[in-house]
């Protein structure tokens, strides 16, 4: 029987039943003799599917709201820059490439990741779909890695497209080739910083989301993690700055303001201010940016000699997230 | 019975005799905490439809997971379609379709989208995945409904989607874990018919795990019975049903006399409450009983065929568990001696002719 059906083409397998209204074809079972994709291509297909779902493509209208709104907000500074460049006489860019607008980036990425990372992993956990994946020709780690790759790409789109819009808006008003060249050279580190953000934040987001099948819990834990660490880093650096200010006031009567950033400008920065930045992924990313040579004023002061610590901390964040993710899927889903 | 020949190819590379889809040797799985899920299980499963029967917790699901290469055995080895389960898990999974016992569907996508996506994960290119998803859904009997979100489906339709996703990659072997779970009698019958058709017409070997022997009898060529992770019997379905059929006779009065008369006729009757049980060897058993009752002039209240419950089968293991069909497990067990198990098997809805689900249930309830 299998040999029979296998040898029959679609046409010969069809047996027509002629009815009053037309012909009903009972095609019978047909073997699949076509191409079969390898593991790498399967993983790519899964990643592509996941990338689409990160933006609600292939889902209902509701699933597209958050990605669209966050993306729109993220692009706003680039649009404003384009307008400013076009209207001003100097045609000078008003937003740096390497930091973009830090506050908007932090806010938008937190919302985007908290809302969309669960879309990629929590749904499958909730509905116990994983046994269906693992019963297919992929390996255990393929699923989380495909999800991670897809979400890194999604975050890249969120960060780099506004970067490119910023570049375009500026370059369109550029005077000559040398100006364009200067803009391009300035853009490159900006894109690399964006890549760093995308990889680290996506990994943390997917890892946190993979621990809960309930979307609300997953979203909550991501939002709380990002906001809490961010607030804590800010708070501790302020406290450290104040103690530093008190200490700095003793030896010399240098006029010091009440605000931390004024102190940064006028005093050697206390170590605590630097170390506080290691708590949050956002401040860590910004510290690494400055350590690697980023010059624009960021969300934390230049870590200076503590740059290495920021580099290490970034790897710790990334390693912990990826490790937790892989470990999670080693256990879950054998049904 | 060559299908169950326990002759094993000596080649360690995983070469198995033709026609054998699954082969295990001393397969053992011990979970942490000394829980033994599989205990030295050695079995060969031939092509065709095979029932894997066992009470809940007998080790059926563990067995399937090892076959798929998702779980490493503590000891022993297993091969599927000639591939070693530990080394060639990916290859096995590309040739095998798996339908899990539990709910595993996304509620907010359509069946078409769901099955197409899983077809892609089975290794089909985009267009082929779409075509085969549509075909698989048609084969399981989902037509226009397939464009609706799965969340709106009935349990029966959901089970069909689960089956369709197992079928989408054109597997050589289907592993179905309790495919009729949660279905009403009509749904069960339809699902069984569907599985039977896939096995017979599609040329796909199937292993159906179930705790209901009565269900499996209708569609399986072979039965593998396990209990507590151990192999009880591996046999053809006919020897199983023969061994498992009993005639229940109830007379108004004089069960004792009937017992004596049947013994005289060499039928080895057993008393149970007010009824008398006789092993059903064939049509002639009916005649013997009829004659005996007529001779004694007893008013016959009831005479019906009924099957052993699975637990009863299990308490009566054959002398040689590794699969020679020769000796059917034998004696009609004494159901009276085995009070209803807590797992209480529901009535088997589609019993053989002359036996309705209700009477089976009534008999079981005793």
Topology:
The complex is a heterodimer of chains A (335) and B (366).
Chain A: H1 2-7, H2 10-13, E1 15-18, E2 23-26, H3 39-54, H4 62-87, H5 102-126, H6 130-134, H7 142-171, H8 176-209, H9 215-249, H10 260-266, H11 271-276, H12 281-291, H13 307-331
Antiparallel strand pairs in A: 1-2
Helix pairs in contact in A: 3-5, 3-7, 4-5, 4-7, 5-7, 5-8, 5-9, 7-8, 8-9, 8-12, 8-13, 12-13
Chain B: E1 20-31, E2 35-46, E3 49-53, H1 60-67, E4 75-80, E5 83-84, H2 89-95, E6 96-99, H3 111-121, H4 126-139, H5 155-167, E7 173-177, H6 185-201, E8 205-210, H7 213-219, E9 222-227, E10 230-236, H8 237-244, E11 245-251, H9 255-264, E12 270-272, E13 275-279, H10 283-296, E14 300-307, H11 310-314, H12 357-365
Parallel strand pairs in B: 3-8, 3-9, 6-7, 7-8
Antiparallel strand pairs in B: 1-2, 1-4, 4-5, 9-10, 11-13, 11-14, 12-13
The ordered H/E elements of chain B are EEEHEEHEHHHEHEHEEHEHEEHEHH
Looking at the structure, what is the overall shape of chain A? globular
Q: Report the β-strand fraction of chain B as a percent range.
A: 15-25%
> How is the biggest beta sheet of chain A arranged?
2 strands, antiparallel
Largest beta sheet: strand ordering of chain A: 1-2
Q: Looking at the chains present, what oligomeric state does this protein adopt?
A: heterodimer
Number of strands of chain A: 2
State the major sheet of chain B. 6 strands, mixed
Beta-strand percentage range of chain A? under 5%
